[in-house]
Design brief:
The longest helix has 23 residues. This protein has a three-stranded antiparallel β-sheet with strand order 1-2-3. The chain is built from six helices and three strands. By secondary structure, the protein is α+β, with helices and mostly antiparallel strands.
Length: 158
């Protein structure tokens, strides 16, 4: 045989030892254990890292101002009366203004409700129309920014 083939036959290729194969596995286990231990001890939190740093803007507190109950006799000689109770949704910045102007709101409600034709109360969807009209009149009296919504809490005939 030649020298080149003799050298190949004499030196078998070196096999990787079993200990060298375990080093990456043991390192991964050590890092995972260290990460778990530091999280468990409260040194850092993965949730805190992923959470956004900016806080959500706080909305002003919602306040409901009760409108005095409107009780009026429906014109037309039928002898029926209408009872309406409502609340106005506003924020805490406008609460004092809404409470101060409540007599004007009550007047707007009463004047509108007394002008409705008695036959209209029997129609379907009249409550939604009345609510929209009352909300428009309330915003006219108090302004667009002061009122967010109108909630009708009672609407009945006696």
């Amino acid at each position: 045989m030649t020298d080149a083939t003799a050298n190949l036959a004499a030196d078998p290729p070196a096999k990787a030892s079993g200990k060298k194969k375990l080093i990456p596995i043991l390192a991964a286990l050590a890092f995972a254990g260290g990460g778990f231990a530091s999280t468990y001890l409260g040194l850092w939190s993965p949730a805190a890292i992923m959470a956004s740093k900016e806080e959500a803007p706080k909305a002003p507190a919602v306040v409901f101002v009760t409108v005095p109950t409107v009780d009026l006799i429906i014109p037309g000689g039928s002898g029926q009366s209408l009872v309406l109770a409502a609340s106005l949704e506003t924020n805490s910045a406008h609460q004092a203004e809404v409470a101060h102007l409540m007599p004007r709101v009550s007047d707007a409600f009463t004047s509108f409700l007394s002008g409705i034709d008695p036959a209209a109360y029997d129609k379907r969807g009249v409550l939604e129309i009345i609510r929209a009209e009352l909300l428009a009149r309330t915003r006219y009296v108090l302004g667009e920014d002061a009122i967010k919504d109108l909630l009708i809490t009672e609407f009945r005939f006696k």
